[in-house]
Amino acid sequence: MTATTNHPFAQRLAQVPDSHLLQANQPTGAPLICMPEVEEQTEYYLAIEHGDSADRGMWTGALGGVAGTFWAIFALALFLDHRPEQALNTLLLALAFFVIPFIWEVLRPMPLPILLNRRSRELYFEQDDELYHTPWDDVAAAAYAYGTVGPYTAGMRHAALEVLLHRFGHPEEQVLLNLGSPIGKSLEMQLGFWEYLRAYMDNGPWFDEHGNSSDSPESIQSLLAVRKRRGHWTRLQWRDIKEQYKANGGRNFLSASDFLLLLGGIVLAPLNALQNFTYAIAKRRSRSQWPQMIRERLRADGPASRLVDLEREQGLI
Questions:
Q1: Taking CA atoms, which of 145, 174, 267, 304 is between 20 and 30 Å from 103?
Q2: What residues have CB less than 8 Å from 93, skipping those under 6 apart?
Q3: Is residue 7 in a domain?
Q4: Start-to-end C-alpha separation, the chain
């Protein structure tokens, strides 16, 4: 266990050997790692997926991209067979497989992401219509490993990365927030993600694999490759095949796994495209759910004052 004893998590994790108490101004020495939960990274803020938002668009992709595509092809076959009325009915069925789940998933409330604001240097989180936050420079965080044992699985190791926030206007109400899912992650990965967030807040928005500031967003593309949306893996797989082709001089470059992964990506392309499209629309609509004070602080010309400063001005803390 590391860090000072006055850390808010010190007593809670005192008996956890694989734990690190984290602060914004203290590096861990771990190499930078970007997690798939990083939903968006801009010059002013970084968004981390939260809750079941990552699955949004799944039903539209499955029903519209698979069943809808099948019936659309069948409708085309009927039309070419000079059966226009049956073709039209089948096409309407294909559209229903897309429209109905699309409307349901777009209109259904979507969990808001966790936001790190570079301009005001603070972290935001919304839960049950209540706003929680913490200033980044005073953030209290911890990473720790733990194990689980299930009735049908052997022991598995996981690692959590948690931060402490308080409710806006009610500092006595605090929550512990996981920055992404801990399932299947190692302590080294979580420490690397913490360093990624530190680099973004201190040296961002663009930086290299060592966390040093860069003038170009291209320097971070290799780190962000892990967060590619569904369907982008096909292009990444094709790129790897071409690199293997060049490296082997055009001989014995294509393995069975490479071929199956590429073929699977092509077959699932309609599903992935519709899922990504639905996700993008639902995400854009959900951003309007943030309170006005948060939306204006995410703008380039918005106020840079911290919420904790507003609370002090109002005598709340």
A1: 267
A2: 71
A3: no
A4: 30
Query: In DSSP terms, which residues pair with 178 in a beta bridge?
Result: 162
Q: Residue 248: what pLDDT?
A: 75
CB 48 within 8 A of CB 123: no
The band of 13, judged by pLDDT with boundaries at 50, 70 and 90, is confident
Give the predicted TM-score (pTM) of the model.
0.79
Residue 232's contacts (CB-CB under 8 Å, 6 or more residues apart) are none
Nearest Cα neighbor of 112 from 298, 260, 267, 314 is: 298
Tell me what the mean pLDDT of segment 126-134 comes to. Answer: 93
| Residue 213 per-residue DSSP state | B
- Stated as kind and residue range, the H or E segment containing 176 is strand 170-178
Do residues 285 and 279 touch, judged by C-beta distance below 8 A? no
- Alpha carbons 126 and 48: distance in angstroms, whole number: 12
Q: Residue 188 domain-assigned?
A: yes
| Number of domains comprising the chain | 1
Return the higher-pLDDT residue of 264 and 233: 264
Question: What pLDDT is recorded for position 210?
Answer: 84
Domain presence at residue 78: no
Average pLDDT over residues 128-151: 89
- pLDDT band for 104, please (50, 70, 90 cuts): very high
Average pLDDT on 135-164 reads 85
Percent above pLDDT 70 for the chain: 83
242 inside domain: no
Query: Domain residues for 216?
Result: 19-56+110-231+268-313
List Cβ neighbours of 3 (8 Å cut-off, separation of 6 or more).
Answer: 10, 20, 21, 22, 23, 26
276-282 long-range contacts (CB < 8 A, ≥24 apart) are 276/57, 276/229, 276/230, 276/231, 277/57, 277/60, 278/56, 278/57, 278/60, 278/61, 278/102, 278/105, 278/106, 279/56, 279/57, 279/229, 281/106, 282/56, 282/57, 282/105, 282/106, 282/108, 282/110
